[in-house]
Amino acid sequence: MPAKEARSVPVLSPSVSSAPVLPPPALPRLFCLVSTDDDPALLPGLAAAGIDGFQVRDKTATTRGLVALTAAALDTGACVVVNDRLDVAVVAGAHGVHLGASDLSVAAARRVAPSLMVGATCRTPEQVARAAADGATYAGFGPLFATSSKAGLPAPLGLPAMSSAVGPLPLIGIGGVDASRAGSVIEAGAHGVAVIGGIWRQPDPLQAAKDLVTAVS
Q: N or C: which end of the chain has fewer CB within 10 A?
C-alpha cells in the first residue's frame, strides 16, 4: 500500500456528530473555493449569482472552523465539497471531497464513503485515467494558467494539455481561471472551472461571479 494511503484520516472530537450525507447533486460548472479568511456572508449572494458549487479549502483552519464553513456553504443550496478532509466532509454532511496528490487516495476515500462525490487533482491524462479507474467522480485539471492564489504549484500546463486529458472523467479547469479565461477553458473540453482569485480578489466578488456564469454558459 502506498505511504499516502497509510496516513490516517484526522479524528474529529467525539462531541462533533456526523450529519446525514447528502446525495450528490449534478456536478457543478462553477466551483468557488472558499476559506475561513473569506466572508461567509457573501456565499448566499454568490450562489444566487449562479455559483453552483463551493469547495471548502483551508489547510490551517481548525476542524470546527472547517465544519462551520462547510455548513454555511451548504445553507446556500449549492453543491459543497471539502478539500483534503474526508472526515470533515462526512461530519458536516457535504456532498463530496476533493483530494490532492498527498491526500488519502481516491480508492481509499471511495471505500470509506461510497456515496460521496470524489474529486482528484490531476496534471496528466494518465492521472485522469487512474483516478477514473479508482472511482473518482471528476478531475480537477491544472494549473492551467499562472496563479498567485496557491504557492508551490508547477508551471502552468495550458489548455492543450487539458484537452489531451478529456474523456475518462469530467474535467474541472483549475489555476488562474477568471471570467476572461473561463470560456476558453470550456471550449477546450472542460465540464467546468474552479476559481479563487477570479472571485475573491476582484473589486466586486458578486459581479465577478455573474461574469463567470456568463462566460461558462
A: N
